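FYI - complex with 8-OXO-2'-deoxyguanosine-5'-triphosphate, inputs then prediction.
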Amino acid sequence: MVKRRVHVAAAAIVSADQKKVLIARRPSNVDQGGLWEFPGGKLAPYETGLEGLKRELHEELGVEIIRAQPLIRIHHEYPDKHILLDVWQVHEFAGEPFGREGQAVRWVPMEELVKYPFPAANLPILRAVMLPTEYLITSEEADEARFDAFLERALKEDNIRLVQLRAKALDEAAYIERAERALRMCREHGASLLLNGEPGLLEKVDADGIHLTSERLMQLDRRPISEQKWLSASTHDQIQLSKAAVLGCDFVTLSPLRTTPSHPEVAPIGWHDFQQLVERAGMPVFALGGMTRFDANHARAVGAQGIASIRDFWK
Ligand SMILES: Nc1nc2c([nH]c(=O)n2[C@H]2C[C@H](O)[C@@H](COP(=O)(O)OP(=O)(O)OP(=O)(O)O)O2)c(=O)[nH]1
Ligand SMILES: [Mg+2]
């Protein structure tokens, strides 16, 4: 049997304060009925993703899109069809959304999204909705007072909401001490902190997740931490991306996009290959390697969640 290929455009409509997202319940008599979804539907053959989405949101919710940005593209095999979910984040719209087809519609706080039953293809979309566009990786900083001042500035002034504590030069005791302080600062600003290191570190510091090196990623054969924590990993190619998917990583960094002073000998991936790798990654991907905030929009346009950087946020 040749499976049908279906291209679906869907919207993560985010409230003005960025704290809530709009979801709808599929009627019980349709495919995936009774489950919650991001409003949207199948594209007509002549439509682009955004054109189809505009039509669908008008038909289903009575709203007009004013500003939207690509969020994530997910290819998913259902038993009867291959589906491409082309998901857009809608930042601005006109009208008051309501279920024009009689469906239930609800604004849900981000952290409660995971409580709603969605179709199987939706898990990475939930991750993407919850994640910001910028991922700060902390710099190797010998001085603790300077470390605190830099992190505080990034949280306060750059509004960073996702941080990876990378400190290869510290022994475990010093790392834990720094992590405890970083965690307090992150909590104060509503940011999430991932520890770069062994999964067991979470038993010592109750941070929000673990970031695996690509080497560690390749050695593991199952997800090493609970679903309640974030699991991210460093990847550099297709093999590592596939491994991250098998392991159930929530998101990854893919690098180096550009040549960087820290790794001058490594060939850069470049935007073209990056886009192709991201298209099939099946999870949010942050572009890493010579990235600045000015690259974030382009990264989004080629399918990434956003950018990860040490240098751009650490000054
Ligand atoms: N809209 C939407 N569809 C999803 C999501 N997740 C997911 O697996 N799907 C699947 C379910 C369906 O097989 C397909 C969407 O088709 P649909 O039933 O919404 O299509 P439509 O609005 O054009 O409706 P119809 O005219 O075909 O009845 O994608 C999601 O979050 N939003
Ligand atoms: Mg629909």
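The chain has a mean pLDDT of 95. The longest helix spans residues 172-188.
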